[in-house]
């Protein structure tokens, strides 16, 4: 009986060792939990909400434009927002808020949107206030005038009035270029692009200046875009300072779209080149 007891004890020890070895697969569960916890809080908030909130332009044809007959907002930047949403939450679910050059900063500051994708030019000054992604589109400041004006270049705008958007980079860019060619110009600032076009049509201003791709949306039979192009405008996705998780996801998405050619496909889809 003593011998049998020894054998039984040995068997129990072996079973215990086998059971202990069998418990080791639990480790991946801990790793998975750790991976989930590693999702930055700002990104997790969007995932949990199930919708990406984005500030967009609604008065820039081909970039972000609201069709007055349907109320639908679409454009290149809307498609880019959907791609970022899919990266974060797995679907293209977005909620858009209409912004202008003047209001896009405040809605970002208030937390009403997660990011702005709104022809937002990257500048060193703006980087002090917001996180900016790498550039997803490059444009230049251009000049739209009435064909009947006889204006052929920026130099011909000497003594003329130029309409620009509030808080946009256009005014500074045009002033710098006007100084180079010796043209003395003045400015009128407006809240929206349609307002500037109306001012041009009525004669309140002699020129409508903003990025070329935006101007092409306001070109008609009575107007022309001058050949002058200056001050390259690099567009970036802006997010709130401190939301570094969001900034990284945005940059990763843009980098992947550049590498795959998907970004170029969107640019071609909207006729931006």
Describe the structure.
This protein has 273 residues and is α/β, with parallel strands linked by helices. The protein folds into 2 domains: 41-136 and 236-269, D-Maltodextrin-Binding Protein, domain 2 (3-Layer(aba) Sandwich); 140-232, D-Maltodextrin-Binding Protein, domain 2, CATH 3.40.190.10. The protein has helices at 2-22, 27-37, 41-49, 76-89, 104-109, 124-127, 170-181, 193-202, 212-215, 244-260, 262-269, and strands at 52-56, 59-60, 64-66, 73-74, 94-98, 115-116, 130-132, 137-146, 161-165, 186-190, 207-211, 223-225, 230-235, 238-240. Helix 4 crosses helix 10 (244-260). Residues 1-36 have low confidence and may be disordered.
Topology:
Elements: H1 2-22, H2 27-37, H3 41-49, E1 52-56, E2 59-60, E3 64-66, E4 73-74, H4 76-89, E5 94-98, H5 104-109, E6 115-116, H6 124-127, E7 130-132, E8 137-146, E9 161-165, H7 170-181, E10 186-190, H8 193-202, E11 207-211, H9 212-215, E12 223-225, E13 230-235, E14 238-240, H10 244-260, H11 262-269
Helix pairs in contact: 4-10
Protein name: Glutamine ABC transporter, periplasmic glutamine-binding protein
Keywords: Signal, Transport
InterPro entries: Bact_solute-bind_prot3, SBP_3_CS, Solute-binding_3/MltF_N
